[in-house]
Specification:
alpha+beta, 8-stranded antiparallel barrel, 3-stranded antiparallel β-sheet, 4 helices
Length: 273
């Protein structure tokens, strides 16, 4: 501040009188504003771009005017006050810019964590095709399929259910349909736990639209431990939306282990809200 005052005196060609500084109140305010602008320039140059600073308000110390020149003691108080305010401005600007830089670094770190290498190209993780387990977590339950039926040779009563979890991948025509079923009757009770891929052919027919489908899957079967599950069936509208909530059913012929065990199943398709 005092160096700037000396430069101002040299520019004006005015020497101070003994005990006095050759600057008035208005000139002191102008000096403070000039110093504030220079501080902004330095902070911007060293810390990067930042939001514009609020203009420095005039000092709170009133300097008495004695013939157009300020009293030396009052100017000293004013200089101290000016220094305090400018120091606060510097500290605030540094704190604010430091916080902005820390946020920017954290954002870049987050983006770096989200970047993955796919086929030699760097892409965002959101653009990467999810793995099978990630895709399973993203699936939504679309339908439940409770059913009953009969198994042949040996003859058993079968009760079970399925969940339609939607397409295996976003654009896949195959839906993932896990299944759980119990059978009781002749021979020992049976348990089937399988995961099926179901392909729907779309609606056909006239007054009673049918929607045929096929499915294939694999899983655990209590009689043979491992099982290959294949089925062909069709869903049918039992009640249109004009008569209340729509209701659909299905009929299916299922074969376990290349149709060594056959099942005839009937059930309902219930939409999940």
């Amino acid at each position: 501040i005092r160096d700037e005052m000396e430069r101002e005196r040299a520019r004006r060609g005015v020497a101070p009188q003994p005990g006095q500084e050759a600057m008035g109140e208005a000139e002191m305010e102008l000096l403070e504003r000039r110093l504030a602008d220079r501080i902004d320039e330095v902070i911007t140059r060293r810390l990067g771009n930042q939001q514009p600073q609020q203009p420095v308000q005039p000092g709170v110390v009133v300097v008495p005017d004695r013939g157009g020149q300020a009293d030396a003691a009052a100017i000293e108080r004013r200089l101290n006050e000016m220094e305090r305010r400018l120091s606060q401005q510097v500290d605030e600007a540094v704190r604010r810019r430091t916080a902005e830089l820390e946020d920017e670094v954290e954002r870049l770190r987050d983006e770096e964590r989200e970047m993955v290498i796919v086929g030699g190209d760097t892409v965002m993780a959101a653009e990467r095709q999810p793995g099978i387990f990630q895709r399973f977590q993203q699936m939504d339950l679309r339908e439940t399929h409770p059913y009953i039926g009969v198994s042949f040779d040996p003859t058993q009563f079968v009760i079970g259910g399925r969940l339609n979890l939607g397409p295996v991948t976003p654009n896949s025509p195959f839906n993932l349909v896990p299944e759980l079923a119990f059978g009781i009757g002749e021979d020992d009770p049976t348990l089937l736990l399988a995961a099926n891929l179901q392909y729907n052919f779309g609606a056909i027919g006239g007054g009673i639209p049918l929607s045929p489908y096929v499915s294939v899957g694999g899983g655990l079967f209590s009689k043979t431990f491992l099982a290959v599950n294949a089925a062909v069936g069709t869903s049918v509208n039992l009640r249109d939306a004009g008569f209340g909530e729509p209701l659909r059913g299905f009929v299916e012929f299922q074969g376990l282990n290349l149709f060594n065990r056959q099942r005839l199943l009937v059930g309902l398709s219930i939409d999940t809200p």
